[in-house]
Write a structure and sequence with these properties.
This protein has 155 residues and is of the alpha+beta class. The chain has five helices and five strands. It is 39% helix and 21% strand. Helix 1 (21-31) runs parallel beside helix 4 (103-120) and helix 2 (42-58) crosses helix 4.
Length: 155
């Protein structure tokens, strides 16, 4: 879902400026003539942006069984309020996602918020929770609740 394209990174530019993920996303979409709209729900898009930031931040430490659900997506004129839960299967995985003193979760939240602001072209209030649901990856009801049912898969 990285609209900035492969290799795009936030950080200093060669001219001494600074580029944010949101700014890179907006400019890249405009330059390539892309519309930020899709047939997927805004909640689904938000969960994918958060999942991408989890992958980027955690890399090899990313728990295999991890999912993001959007608990509430409230659209106001000037701000979108998004409340999301990151689901893991074990307490040890929860500790990895949160990090020492919450630093990992804070980084994931900030990066996700910036990317979402670029995508939706709105201010974003993002609240993330990390919760444990044991064996959710082997439970059909949980898989369906997270959008992984057979009906949601394209063939």
């Amino acid at each position: 879902l990285d609209p900035a394209g492969p290799g795009a990174r936030a950080g200093p530019t060669a001219l001494g400026g600074h580029r944010s993920p949101a700014r890179v996303a907006r400019r890249s979409q405009a330059a390539r003539g892309l519309s930020p709209r899709t047939d997927r729900s805004d909640g689904f898009i938000a969960s994918e942006w958060i999942r991408e930031q989890l992958t980027r931040k955690l890399g090899q430490e990313l728990p295999y069984d991890i999912s993001v659900s959007i608990d509430m997506f409230e659209k106001k004129k000037k701000v979108y309020k998004i409340y999301a839960t990151i689901w893991v299967e074990k307490d040890s995985q929860k500790s990895i996602v949160i990090g020492k003193g919450g630093d990992v979760l804070k980084t994931i939240g900030t990066r996700s918020r910036l990317a979402l602001e670029g995508y939706f072209n709105r201010k974003i209030y993002l609240q993330l929770w990390v919760k444990i649901r044991e064996d959710w990856a082997d439970d059909e009801e949980s898989l369906a609740a997270f959008g992984y049912s057979d009906a949601n898969q394209s063939h």
